[in-house]
Design a protein that fits this description.
Strand content: 5-15%
Number of domains: 1
Helix content: 25-40%
Order of helices and strands: HHEHHHHHEEHEEEHEEEHEEEHEH
Number of helices: 12
Low-confidence stretches: none
Largest sheet: 11 strands, mixed
CATH class: Alpha Beta
CATH architecture: Alpha-Beta Complex
CATH superfamily: Cysteine proteinases
Mean pLDDT: 93
Number of strands: 13
Structural class: alpha+beta
Radius of gyration: 30 Å
Oligomer: single chain
């Protein structure tokens, strides 16, 4: 009994001395890069970068005589548009070019300047692409690209928003990038197809959640200049553009002329048959007359030719390709059929000038190729297209119907 008490006293003494000490605390800290990251890894990465084989990109290019190119904005009769806007790392030229065109139309018709959100249209276009993908059980193209008349189609269905209300740019980002967004949307739809899960309501809801994550959720109602609008009422009551006033003029020989036809390219993913197909001389005459009468236009076609230079910002047809006198309906169709003319890029034609008996066209561009010069230069974001380039390589354009009413009158009812 005495022995047990002795050990009990020793244990209590030790315990009391232990509990008398202060208890250590813990915390979470942000670990800053140390010697390993700053010195060892930096050295390894630097050497690896040096040892990588340097890839030299070589491109077959026309040698252009800069003295023969009207390469100043001041050379052109230019009609109003906002300054060029970059589409960033997206394949949404179709939307940027046609939005720019519609903004010019608002100015031309109402003398009002309003920047319209490109990404609200893109957001809704993705929804409709996904909807058709489900309806067609995966047999519908799902890409970033589209056509100019997709914009008026989306306006008709969803309306539009001011850019100030919906930019879809995360805080701190200057340029759009849709690589991650598109990859996630595409992967999801592929999984829908592989699992045969054609629940349209669920698919659209999931697609919207992805768009909301990357672009932000568009408002259902918003205040602008002291008034409340919805996207539909903003289009109707403020922008006042009627989507039905805009038409697509096309020229290719594979479909009958003087009929409305389908433009058979992947970006016409909903297989629109609203294109007014005309012979090439009529097509070119419409462009010449339209721009001279103050009608700008959204226009699209091929921008991957030897005569298309990102250094001079000029697009020409070299004689080693085809002499100017031989550019006709057959030459145009030949290149479209053998796929040397492809549906690459949408741009906004905003002006013209005459040089040596030929037209040059001033092109406002959202792509990066037109931005390799001085960012402070007036020409930053523009191209200069020779009429032969338009004649051979630009396949179709969007314009107000009043500019081409003589053409539309000739179509079969």
């Amino acid at each position: 009994m005495v022995r047990n008490s002795f050990f009990t006293l020793i244990f209590l003494g030790l315990a009391s001395s232990l509990f008398a000490q202060s208890q250590d605390k813990s915390e979470f800290i942000n670990v800053e890069p140390g010697f390993y990251q700053k010195s060892i890894l930096k050295d390894v990465n630097a050497v690896n970068e040096i040892q990588k084989p340097q890839v030299q990109i070589t491109r077959f290019q026309m040698v252009q005589d800069i003295t023969k190119i009207p390469n100043k904005i001041s050379d052109y009769k230019k009609f109003w548009s906002f300054p060029p806007v970059s589409q960033g790392n997206t394949n949404t030229c179709w939307c940027f070019s046609t939005t720019s065109f519609i903004e010019s139309e608002v100015k031309r018709i109402y003398n009002k300047e309003i920047r319209i959100s490109e990404m609200f249209t893109v957001y809704n276009e993705y929804i409709e692409k996904a909807r058709r993908y489900v309806k067609e059980r995966g047999n519908s193209a799902f890409g970033e690209g589209s056509e100019g008349n997709a914009l008026t189609r989306m306006f008709r269905m969803y309306g539009c928003l001011p850019l100030s209300i919906y930019s879809a740019l995360p805080a701190g980002r200057k340029y759009h990038t849709h690589e991650a967004l598109y990859n996630e949307l595409n992967s999801y739809l592929e999984s829908v197809k592989s699992s045969n899960s054609w629940n349209e309501e669920l698919v659209i809801s999931t697609v919207k959640s992805m768009l909301n994550y990357y672009l932000g959720e568009p408002p259902v109602k918003f205040m602008f200049e002291g008034k409340e609008y919805t996207p539909i009422s903003f289009l109707k009551d403020y922008v006042k553009i009627n989507p039905d006033d805009y038409v697509e003029i096309l020229s290719y020989k594979q479909e009958p002329y003087w009929q409305q036809v389908e433009y058979k390219v992947p970006d016409n993913w909903w297989h629109s048959t609203d294109y007014y197909n005309v012979p090439l001389d009529v097509y070119m005459d419409a462009i010449k007359k339209g721009i001279r009468n103050g009608y700008t236009m959204s226009i699209g076609g091929d921008v991957s030719e030897p005569g298309f230079s990102r250094t001079t910002q000029a697009a020409m047809i070299p004689s080693f390709d085809i002499p100017s006198a031989f550019i006709n309906d057959d030459a145009r169709q030949f290149r479209f059929t053998n796929e040397t003319t492809t549906d690459d890029h949408g741009i906004h034609l905003v002006g013209y000038c005459e040089r040596d008996g030929k037209d040059w066209y001033l092109i406002k561009d959202s792509g990066s190729g037109s931005r390799n010069n001085d960012s402070n230069a007036p020409e930053f974001g523009y191209y200069f297209f020779h009429e032969d380039y338009v004649k051979l390589k630009m396949m179709g354009f969007t314009i107000h119907k009043d500019a081409v009413k003589d053409i539309l009158a000739k179509f079969k009812k």
